[in-house]
Amino acid sequence: MKQRTLKHKVQAVGVGLHSGERVNLHISPAPENQGIVFRRSDLSQDKARPITLTPDLINDTRLSSTIVTTDGIRIGTIEHLMSALCALGIDNALIELDAPEVPIMDGSSLPFIYLLEDAEIIDQQAEKQFLQVLKTVEIIEKDKYVRLTPYNGFKVTLGIDFDHPVFHRSKQKMTIDFACKSYIEEISRARTFGFMQEVELMRVHNLGLGGNLSNAIVIDDMEILNPEGLRYEDEFVRHKILDAIGDLYVAGHQIIGNFEGYKSGHAINNQLLRNLLNDETAYKWVTFPDNENLPLSFHALPKVA
Fold it and tell me: Which entry of 80, 239, 253, 266 is annotated as an active-site residue?
């Protein structure tokens, strides 16, 4: 299987969920083996250099996954875009934005799927490298946990636990095996969510400044405030799966393995990925030059142009 990039440059305009700032986003083709690269086009020339994404750059995980470099350059809320890039198998891309946060769009990854499909996905010459999990790596923190285990494919099992009437009417656990189900149909439309009672606290910390009913599910003491309701009966846990996929794709490579989490979040997801990559006995890089033995999960990747 070959690496993938885009055929054309595409752009979108939106608002940052936490910053509230208007954002111009451009996504461009990139050379083989470059990976996913971010660039802040609004900064001075010495600070507008390309930033190749790695797990060690995710240094702010308050309600999102945010790149923070050693010299303070920030690129926030990357997880929904990263989730879309993973779903489409895009290995190499340049992402430029003129604000400190990726636009939230409608709170899901579907607008990014449409944007990337509009750019047309193309094969490159180099072989795609997969990150194969060889042994169990896990983190347990009080009542929450995340783990990666060996599996010939890509499967995600995630559980959430919110003591609230809205969640009591919804399934709070889901397993999706990507050999059997489609990310675009099952996961991509699930939106981020938040509670009205948390809004004031968030805004004290300059978070959630761009949030509204058009880009998030908002919940009060008893009900969902969005007039259209939910897109899936269990949209909350599906969105958590969407987030986890984006957090794991910060590695820049699709994972061959099984991810399980309970009450997981951006911080613990990122630490799990760091722990995996810091243990050379826990993983290996693999390629499939003629697609022989390629796990079924990756046969389902959308066709290239």
Answer: 266
- The pLDDT confidence band at residue 94, using thresholds 50, 70 and 90, is very high
d(CA 52, CA 253): 13
Question: Order of strands across the sheet with 66-68?
Answer: 58-60, 66-68, 74-75
Model confidence, pTM: 0.95
Task: Kindly report, residue by residue over 80-91, the tens digit of the pLDDT.
Answer: 999 999 999 999
Q: How far apart are CA 95 and CA 30, in angstroms?
A: 10
Please name the residue ranges forming H helices in the chain. 79-87, 110-119, 165-168, 183-186, 199-204, 235-248, 266-277, 296-299
Which residue type, as a one-letter code, is found at position 44? S
DSSP string, 176-243: EETTTS-HHHHTTTPPPEEEGGGHHHHHHTT-STT--TTTSEEE-SSSB--TT--SSTTHHHHHHHHH
Q: What are phi and psi of 212, to 5 degrees?
A: -160, 180
How far, in Å, CA of 238 to CA of 160, rounded? 10
- Token pair 């752009």 in the structure block, residue: 11
Catalytic site residue 239?
Answer: no
Which sign, positive or negative, has the C-alpha torsion 10, 14, 15, 17? negative
